Amino acid sequence: MSVAIVTYRRAWALPYSLSSIASQTRKPDEVIIVLKPSGDGSEEVISKFSSQLPIKLVIQGKGNPAQAYQMAINSASGDIILFIDDDAVAEERWVEKYVELFKSLPDADEIGGPIYTAYLNNNVLVKTWSHFHLPPKPTRKIFYKKPLLEFSDYVSWLSISGFRGSKDIPKEGMFKSIGLIGANMGFRRKAIVGCPLAMLYRKSRKCLHFEQILVYCAKRKGFDSYEVRGSQAPVVWHIAHSQSLTRGEGFWHEFWLHYDSVAHYWRLKALGAKVSLLAHIIECLVRLRKRTPAHLIATLYAWLVKY
User: Fold this and answer.
1) What is the Cβ-side half-sphere exposure of residue 48, based on CA atoms within 13 angstroms?
2) CB 156 within 8 Å of CB 169
3) How far apart are CA 93 and CA 113, in angstroms?
4) Closest CA to 199 of 213, 185, 188, 220
5) pLDDT, tens digit, for every residue of 23-70?
6) What is the DSSP string of the chain?
7) What is the pLDDT confidence band of residue 133, given thresholds at 50, 70 and 90?
8) CA–CA separation, 113 and 64 (whole Å)
9) pLDDT tens digits, residue range 76-99?
10) Residue 150 CB: number of other CB atoms within 10 A?
11) What are phi and psi of 244, to 5 degrees?
């Protein structure tokens, strides 16, 4: 069992994250930390936990988050890899619950749990039961939102246009979904090893929804992905703060987020998905109704460079 953490400029948050891993009822066999040095003291924080955790430190000299996750996957030796963000905190039974879920779901090779919001009050961690990520709105029944055949029985899916679609997300139970989030997810290593994640995101700045590409790579091998809710779900709290790749403002922020969404069509096509160019074009046109300048240029750029 491997736990993987990708970190950059998070020396202030790492002690909370690593403390939660050190306090697990079921200890991980290794903790892969992929660090992109920034001079913020992260190395010193990691060193302080080396006596409490079996840390394997991997240095990322350059590159984006997708390349860092690829390095984590390639460096892990466990049959199961659990991912948690460097600014997230796991409940004490987080690893134990994942082990139990993978045993109870033999057809599942990807599992994700809920993420709630935490905040710091004078360096004291305060946990809430407010969802950190709001569930997606149910998708209208329209032809370009149709799920790819592989995801026809999923609650959340990748559509023939390359964009995501979703039904109402259940509040309890286990259900097939592509909605895994990097702050709280686990994979059987065999399901994602060899996925060309870094190559498919080589032009990206934000690496938005890289999790969905991992899910699709696993699906091509015949594996299913599940989200779990309720008492058996492994829970993580994400510390609220202003530094984030996906939260921001301005033209270039919107440009790079939309580029990743559009480029998903080309990434899926490269992986062998039967996406529809007509459906893709129609959905891109529909999405130009909002933030038109950034979305238009991002769409043209994605069509030019692909991914």
Assistant:
1) 11
2) yes
3) 12
4) 213
5) 999 999 999 999 999 999 999 999 999 999 999 999 999 999 999 999
6) -EEEEEESS-TTTHHHHHHHHHT-SS--SEEEEEE---SSSHHHHHHHTTTTS-EEEEE--S--HHHHHHHHHHH--SSEEEEE-TTEEE-TTHHHHHHHHHHH-TTEEEEE--EEEEEEETTEEEEEEEESSPPPPPPP--GGGPBPGGGTT-SEEEBTTSSEEE-PPPSSEEEEBS--BTTEEEEEHHHHTT--HHHHTTT-SS-TTHHHHHHHHHHHTT-EEEEEESTTS--EEEEP-S--SSS--SHHHHHHHHHHHHHHHHHHHHTT----HHHHHHHHHHHTTSSHHHHHHHHHHHHHH--
7) confident
8) 25
9) 999 999 999 999 999 999 999 999
10) 17
11) -160, 145
147, 216 Cβ separation under 8 angstroms: no
Percent of the chain at pLDDT > 90 equals 92
